[in-house]
Design a protein that fits this description.
This protein has 181 residues and is α/β, with parallel strands linked by helices. The protein is 39% helix and 22% strand.
């Protein structure tokens, strides 16, 4: 495993450098969490000491799963990943990042469209709150995947079992059956 980066925090009296662990937050709706998200999380843990998966509570999004259900699914999938925690938050991501004393915001990139949007968001976050954003490119097999597309394809009867973890797929199928007239 690659050695994790640490930020220099100061010097001890003996001249050695004291290292501060790097804490990142990975915000999103995760409705549902995808294999692409898990790929980004796994790769991020090679860079950061702590990763908080921050499930946003958005009143304007029409969610399929409740925030509590999303937290539960993500916690189950990341239970064996040291340094990963899962929390929900309301409000602005930068305010949550400041509250959690995060060093960076982690974002996954899939396409050029993502780059354009995420670039503006990262610049705004830096200007408003002074926090940096770190991007991880999606692996090729997940570059087209989004939670929205997965929800839509599944609702129309498409097989999305290779795009989300098996436990999430099972819950998605149950939810869709329950929501059908």
């Amino acid at each position: 495993m690659a050695k994790k980066s640490v930020k220099s925090f100061g010097s001890a009296q003996d001249g050695s450098v004291i290292k501060k662990p790097i804490r990142a937050i990975f915000p999103g709706s995760f409705d549902p969490i995808t294999n692409g998200h898990l790929d980004v999380i796994d790769r991020a843990m090679k860079l950061f000491d702590e990763l908080i998966i921050a499930v946003g509570r958005s009143p304007i999004k029409n969610a399929l799963f409740t925030p509590e259900e999303r937290l539960e699914m993500i916690a189950e999938l990341t239970a064996d990943m040291p340094g990963v925690s899962v929390e929900s938050f309301d409000g602005l991501t930068v305010e949550y990042a400041a509250k959690k004393k995060a060093d960076v915001i982690l974002r996954g990139l899939r396409s050029l469209t993502d780059v354009h949007y995420e670039f503006k968001l990262a610049m705004t976050n830096r200007a408003v709150a002074g926090i940096e954003t770190v991007f991880i490119m999606a692996s090729a097999e997940y570059g087209f995947t989004s939670s929205t597309l997965i929800r839509e394809a599944a609702a129309l009867g498409g097989n999305v079992s290779n795009l989300i973890p098996k436990t999430v797929y099972n819950r998605l199928q149950q939810r869709l059956k329950r929501n059908r007239p």
